[in-house]
Design a protein that fits this description.
five-stranded mixed β-sheet, homodimer, alpha+beta, 9 helices
């Protein structure tokens, strides 16, 4: 870590309109802050404030908060007032949000994770992104079954009880929809990181390795090269997974972030296919079939395909390649001062661990290496932070990740040279956020 | 991993009454299961069931579930039906719970995390244990301040905005109340692991290192050997922290598990003191004072002290020593069959990483080494799993953790020989769960 923050006052960021503070709260905060900063507290008047002893609120120019607050005088809420806790009333604006008009039916749509307001690598379970093909259900786990059949010696039907008694494994992994950042293929840049990159979450998953179930049922190793996974909801989501992946790190999972899966995320059972696009993480998992060739289902032949420049389409692209994004400052935010900023973001690769993230503030001419927060885990989000001092002139913030296999995140023009502009899926290009002299941050494409 | 699960049918566990399935649901499940098992599906009849094709529910002996379920036929709920998601309706019984009568006022009490129903190492944020001294509050972050003063060159008052603009760090750590497992000092064994060990949680915390704030304010390194942390709630919780710890890995944190802290956990600001008992993780943090000696506050001289056999009390015990517990099977549960069980639990040490966990099924005569799930992080919970086949005779399940510094979890009689039986705090003894021939699991003390 450099010591840029020593160089002066840290800059303030006004969040994007749909960030975690409401606009009127922010306006009020800005006014209060101007009065406050007028007293130059940051640069030295703190001593005067501190002279007020326990009256830590002194010197704010706001008579109301000179009063000893209620929470210091009174008796608060009891324990277990909420048997299951919820966020603060002051954080209500931090939500997963649908992008209106993205699909014709809200039951077959997406809600995006508000990356701009999150911290670390674990996505709050309540803000995990949603992608439903025929809506979500809250299935009675006592009636849910998983069938394993096809090229196996002994087909079986497992209850949830059966599965949860088997040897389990827990692992932290990211999940990213193959269509994440899909709007950036053209020039249709969406305004905020929630909508550009918010089909991305990370959690700790617990389940039984699929390899264990296949072992119990006795796969035909000579012929059984592929696995089909099918969900129980009305979309009959079906995806082919290679036997190599199935025997490696795929989990039949019932838990995320310490508790049973949420209904929106496939309760009571979903497949976890580390490093692979979210559509393969089949929700409401009810059937695994072993076969000798890819199953060529609708969801891998017509959907989730890459339309190439020559008009052909590419199937079975599934690994989410190395990628990163600066989550703050990011589109829609407003830098309110020159000075120090902690630039923070996320990096990930479907091939393994992140090795390094570089950050540029001048659109890719100069790069500095960010520090990575621990732990850095394979096929998991990695949080990066780096110091930056904004001098008030226009800037373009970018991050560029490299993974342990040597893959480096490409520029958007490099990707377009190979893939064209008509794709929806598998865009892992470097993201650019332009900071105007006014402090406004906008989504731009730089190459 | 051994292959014990190959040896036959996996055993079923009936959860403790306050586990995640309601008792009547369980009775029903047991009856259904008996009918189901009567068809010997697990041992081979799966082929017949699978012959039903996509009708995965076939052969269950319950006509109702031969119908194609509603969720396979209909259109489900839309995205963002819940802007902030919640657990399944079927998991309502998994709650943090108060232990009635533990304290006289519920605003100065404890609610315990239901460890028996959790997975992995991340505690669901909504089930994080609570310990309040004067109730919890949902403080307006725009009005919250942190003062840093005492033996510093420039005392300062920080707003939340100030703090959140500084270089931040994210780390996964456990938090354990010093009184966790306190009821086991005598022979007052509580029935379930929720109440015996549930003042324990683990999360990913994000904040600014306390060292950074002390650096900004300019600590007097010659004299300033101690730090006082004070909370803003009515209990005026105050704790001394050594400067060594303060400059090491202590965070002034605003986020847990990716989002802003919950009100019950100190929103908008709490201290994170890795490896140290929870009381030092001061909630609603409003003041940091640097001093030249311990502050001898009420919460470290009268409370959170260790009453020794000779009648004296020991102060400033703060590191949570190496400890572990089997969370399933555990007290109050009922093993319903002989056969295979996945024995699972948690291990942790305030001194660093867990190196190894051994598990005994015969009260400590024989031990086998459990497998540790990744990641194994310093001062964080570590999940362990191990295979066990129950032959139907009485058994005593125990786990014994060792950390990377060489500390090994003691037996309760070893701890009592030094500490007596009148303590409340800092009990890290090996926990014993007795399995009766009937399958009932009970909390016992074995030495």
């Amino acid at each position: 870590m450099t010591s840029l923050w020593r160089s002066g006052m840290p800059g303030r960021i006004r969040p994007a309109p749909e960030n975690h503070l409401a606009a009127d709260t922010l306006d009020e905060a800005m006014k209060a802050r101007r009065r406050f900063m007028g007293k130059a507290l940051w640069m030295g008047a703190g001593a005067a404030a501190a002279a007020g002893g326990a009256r830590a609120d002194i010197g704010q120019g706001d008579p109301a908060i000179l009063e000893l607050p209620e929470h210091t005088r009174g008796l608060g809420q009891p324990v277990a007032a909420r048997a299951y806790g919820l966020p603060s009333q002051w954080e209500k604006n931090l939500q997963r949000r649908e992008s209106p008009g993205l699909t014709r039916v809200a039951a077959a749509s997406v809600s995006f994770t508000p990356l701009q307001g999150l911290f670390g690598i674990i996505t709050p379970t309540g803000l995990h992104f949603e992608r439903h093909h025929q809506g979500w259900w809250d299935i009675d786990p006592s009636r849910h079954r998983l069938m394993v059949h096809g090229l196996v010696r002994e087909p079986r039907v497992f209850t949830m009880d059966d599965l949860m008694r088997l040897p389990s494994a827990s692992r932290i992994h990211f999940i990213e929809c193959g269509a994440n950042t899909g709007m950036e293929w053209g020039n249709v840049a969406v305004p905020t990181v929630q909508y550009s990159h918010g089909m991305l979450s990370c959690g700790e998953f617990t389940g039984v390795p699929l390899a264990t179930l296949l072992d119990i049922c006795g796969i035909d190793r000579a012929k059984g090269g592929f696995v089909l996974a099918e969900g129980a909801d009305g979309s009959s989501m079906t995806r082919t997974i290679s036997m190599q992946a199935a025997l490696d790190d795929v989990l039949v999972a019932w838990a995320m972030n310490g508790e049973m899966l949420r209904p929106e995320n496939g309760y009571p059972l979903r497949l976890v296919v580390p490093g692979v696009q979210g559509v393969s993480w089949v929700k409401y998992l009810r059937r695994i079939e072993v076969g000798d060739q890819p199953f060529h289902t609708k969801d891998e032949t017509v959907h989730y395909i890459d339309l190439m420049p020559d008009g052909r389409h590419r199937q079975f692209t599934s690994i989410q390649e190395v990628k990163s994004v600066v989550t703050s400052p990011s589109g829609g935010q407003l830098l309110m001062d020159r000075g120090y900023y902690n630039v923070t973001g996320l990096a990930w690769s479907g091939r393994g661990r992140i090795r390094r993230v570089d950050v540029s503030a001048d659109g890719g001419r100069n790069w500095r290496t960010a520090r990575l927060e621990q732990p850095v885990l394979p096929k998991a989000l990695t949080r990066f932070n780096i110091d930056w001092t904004w001098d008030g002139s226009p800037a373009v913030l970018q991050s560029r990740a490299a993974d342990e296999t040597g893959h480096v995140q490409p520029k958007i023009n490099q990707l377009r040279a190979v893939r064209g502009t008509r794709s929806i899926y598998h865009n892992n290009a470097i993201q650019s956020w332009k900071v105007a002299a006014s402090g406004e941050v906008a989504n731009v494409q730089v190459w």
